[in-house]
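Lab notebook, design round three. We kept the backbone fixed and only want residue identities now. Task for the bench partner: fill in a sequence for the structure below.
Input structure tokens:
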């Protein structure tokens, strides 16, 4: 065997080993990238869910606040101006019975 044949055999062995290591390295990179991408997408989904619950809670709180404000103070203002229960019911889109109940509750059950 000549020196050229030995160089060729050694180079084939080295290239085969390097290709095997490269293949193993690329598989590891794919697994790591898949796991990182999965974790990132899960984090984004969790943040969106948290944001959605905060929005729902704030909307519910504002709706409750609006109902409390408009439910009795408007009726009392109209009553103080001298409107009758029928006129107050028309202006506030409530029934006369609701108006009467609200006024009774505000007065402490008297009447």
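Proposed sequence:
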């Amino acid at each position: 065997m000549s020196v050229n044949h030995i160089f060729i055999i050694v180079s084939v062995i080295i290239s085969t080993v390097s290709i095997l290591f490269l293949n193993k390295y690329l598989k590891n990179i794919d697994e790591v990238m898949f796991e990182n991408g999965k974790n990132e997408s899960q984090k984004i989904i969790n943040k969106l869910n948290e944001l959605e619950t905060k929005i729902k809670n704030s909307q519910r709180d504002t709706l409750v606040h609006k109902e409390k404000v408009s439910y009795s103070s408007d009726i009392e203002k109209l009553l103080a101006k001298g409107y009758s229960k029928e006129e107050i019911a028309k202006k506030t889109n409530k029934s006369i019975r609701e108006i009467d109940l609200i006024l009774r509750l505000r007065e402490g059950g008297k009447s």
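Keep this in mind before ordering anything: The CA atoms of residues 53 and 87 lie 40 Å apart.
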